[in-house]
UniProtKB/TrEMBL annotation:
Key words of the record: Methyltransferase, Transferase
Organism: Gossypium armourianum
Name the record gives this protein: Uncharacterized protein
Membership in a protein family: Belongs to the methyltransferase superfamily.
Signal sequence coordinates: none
Record keyword Mitochondrion present: no
A GO molecular-function descriptor: methyltransferase activity
SUPFAM superfamilies: S-adenosyl-L-methionine-dependent methyltransferases
Coiled coil: none
One BP annotation, GO: methylation
InterPro entries referenced in this protein's UniProt entry, alphabetically: Lys/N-term_MeTrsfase_sf, SAM-dependent_MTases_sf
């Protein structure tokens, strides 16, 4: 959306529409992430109405539609966004209407000390809960001590490759990400491209994953790495070993898959099946639709007939 001052008709202010998500895979990430955390013991309703702080980390910025959408729909959301490419950040602000007031300096301070009047009027406080950092994702999660309720990862590089260091189970990134994730209800959602080129599958990837996941040479290993590192031997604050699960669901209309790993998914039974997971998600998605008054239905992305694989 574009606007200008009556006194300065030649000056155009570009503003991204915060309540609009145009890309199916981003809608899938939102639908699955929020429906999953709503299936845990986390009080999403309180966060939506600003009665509780919800700490969110977005790794990969793009145009900024995901963090803007979350901030507009969840009044209690405080969102940290990590982007390594300064050109991406500049383009999102100058050409795509992301609020410049949210950009942080390398020292961790706001680049602009105060938003101007037009930012205050147009964004209505949303920009004050967004923090966009130009930094390496691994460096960020290793060096800070924040604890996040939900983490979104969409970090393919310019060559359409998900960097190895962001999914290697022995990497500092994934192990530090585990420490940044809330031990009881923490949820991670990862966007993965469904490249089906498995000419030489690794012997470390079981036939089960190769056969069921609609993915290529990296993705099955990515799923297993995230599940193993984020769920293994995690202890809750009460001193008990935390439960958790991972699953991957194909995105309609595009060749993407959404991976979800949750530490607090609300299943009390020791046995977990695909149908149990999907039924729980479907039930929670109806509540999420109502709570957030979404402009799309989560059920489009959490349909019992969608390809879903437990990790």
């Amino acid at each position: 959306m574009a606007a200008y001052r009556d006194t300065e008709p030649g000056s155009i202010f570009i503003m991204q529409q915060a309540q609009c998500l145009a890309i199916p895979y981003v809608k899938s990430m939102v639908s699955l992430g929020l429906s999953t955390i709503a299936s845990s013991k986390y009080d999403l309703m309180a966060a939506v109405h600003g009665k509780k702080r919800m700490h969110i980390l977005c790794i990969g910025h793009g145009g900024g539609s995901l963090p803007l959408f979350l901030a507009s729909k969840i009044q209690g959301a405080e969102i940290h966004v990590i982007e390594i490419d300064p050109i991406v950040i500049s383009a999102s602000v100058q050409a795509m209407g992301f609020p410049g007031f949210s950009v942080m300096t390398p020292s961790g301070e706001l680049a602009l000390l105060e938003p101007d009047t037009i930012n205050e009027v147009m964004w209505k406080g949303i920009h004050e809960r967004l923090y966009l950092y130009e930094t390496d994702a691994e460096k960020y999660v290793v060096e800070n001590n924040n604890l996040y309720d939900i983490i979104f990862v969409d970090a393919y590089d310019g060559d359409d490759i998900f960097p190895n260091k962001l999914w290697d189970p022995h990497s500092p990134f994934l192990n530090s990400l585990s420490d940044r994730l809330h031990p009881e209800h923490g949820t991670v959602v990862v966007n993965l491209h469904a490249d089906s080129d498995i000419s030489n599958p690794s012997e470390t990837v079981s036939y089960f994953y190769q056969r069921l996941l609609p993915m290529g040479k990296y993705v099955s290993r990515v799923c297993k790495a995230y599940k193993d590192v984020l769920i293994r031997n995690k202890v809750t604050r009460g001193g008990k070993f935390g439960c958790g699960l991972g699953f991957a669901i194909s995105v309609p209309w595009v060749c993407n898959t959404s991976l979800v790993v949750s530490r607090g998914f609300g299943l009390t039974s020791g046995f977990v099946s695909r149908d149990m997971v999907m039924n729980t998600l479907v039930s929670s998605s109806v509540k999420v639709d109502h709570m957030l008054n979404l402009p799309f239905s989560c059920l489009e992305y959490i349909n019992i007939k969608r390809d879903c694989t437990l990790i």
